[in-house]
Amino acid sequence: MNKVRAAITAVGGYVPPDLITNADLEKMVDTSDEWITSRTGIKERHILKGEGKGTSDMMYQAVMEMMEKNNIDPLEIDFIVCSTITGDLVFPATANILADKIGAKNAWGFDLSAACSGFLYGMEVASKMVESGKYKKVLLVGGDKMSSIIDYTDRNTCIIFGEGVGCVLLEPDEEGYGVQDSILHSDGSGRLYLHQKAGGSANPPTHETIDAREHYVYQEGKTVFKFAVTNMAEVTANVLARNNMTGEDVNWLIAHQANLRIIDATAQRINLPEEKVLVNIHRYGNTTNGTLPLLLSDFESKFKKGDNLILSTFGGGFTWGAMWLKWAYDPK
Q: Which of the residues 116, 167, 231, 280 is marked catalytic?
């Protein structure tokens, strides 16, 4: 019997309609379009507006679009992972809420929190569930409502983040397609440089933490940038080396969209030409857990059956990793 691998068989994506452009940010903080673009590559970012709207509302839109496009019955989905750091509630899990909204009555699942690496970590978890033989249709959704934890008076962070969601369906494959290999890492000492100060059990919400604006993303940009440039590029090179591959064997680089310079450094590390590097950071900014699946959704029509895709990411915590997968279907 051939080895069972987890292959992506469908993708979907959603970004809310409202925008914050660099011109808008010029009116909010001391910055400029030129400064933002030259340092990050970002031109605009989408923002979810509306009273009571949460991450699951965007996830619902992405998943429904995917299911309708691919004639997927929600009753056939048997496992759901939601990669997010901005779940609708502290509990229950956003995966539970999403299952109810899409009608996946036969599924169970949970949320996975690994900052910007959450979707790649989720791919590892979801693929192993498929490989176990017990689960046939696994839904993995990644995305965040970052505006709920961004301080729009802090120019170090508000220029970076937008929001959006992407999703994939993973199914068993015995023809050699799907997830081939991965290398994942974490280093908890990185929490000092990128975190949310209050809101957890160690520092629960109080009037004092709210007044001190501690429920927003805190980032020491130079330290995070240096770490990301080095480690995201290194782990990407390592997953290729472990499989006796070079940049010539790679069809597409699917890199976390945090900063254009980090993406370029990763591509250069494996000698990958610009035309093989997929980028949408200029349109969305850093959507955290949404960047990788939104790339897959946006550029689905480019992928051909058998293409080698390298997924690469880093996130707060610190978390980082890379994955090699073989695309399982031709453009629809």
A: 116
Q: Do residues 154 and 188 share a domain?
A: no
Q: What would the pLDDT profile of 276-298 be if each residue is shown by its tens digit?
A: 999 999 999 999 999 999 999 99
Is 167 a known active-site residue?
A: no
Which residue is catalytic, options 231, 259, 280, 286?
A: 286
Task: Give the pLDDT band of residue 2 (cuts 50, 70, 90).
Answer: confident
Work out the pLDDT band at 4, boundaries 50, 70, 90.
very high
Which CATH number covers residue 16?
A: 3.40.47.10
- Which residue from 271, 278, 281, 287 is spatially nearest to 254, judged by alpha carbons? 278
> Are residues 25 and 140 located together in one domain of the fold?
yes
Domain count, the chain: 2
| pLDDT greater than 70 at residue 1 | no
> What six digits make up the tokens of 134?
């017990």
Catalytically annotated residue among 158, 256, 259, 289: 256
Is 256 considered catalytic here? yes
Distance CA 284, CA 15 (A): 8
92: preceding bond cis by omega (within 30 degrees): yes
113 shares a domain with 92: yes
Strands 319-326 and 178-186: antiparallel
Whether residues 10 and 124 fall in one domain: yes
Q: Could you tell me if 286 and 148 lie in one domain?
A: no
Domain boundary (176, 195, 213) is at: 176
Helix (H) or strand (E) holding 240: helix 221-242
Q: Please state, as a whole number, how many other Cβ atoms lie within 10 Å of the Cβ of residue 202.
A: 7
Q: Is 56 within a domain?
A: yes
**If you count them, how many residues does the chain have?**
332
pTM of the model: 0.97
Q: Quick check: is 282 catalytic?
A: no
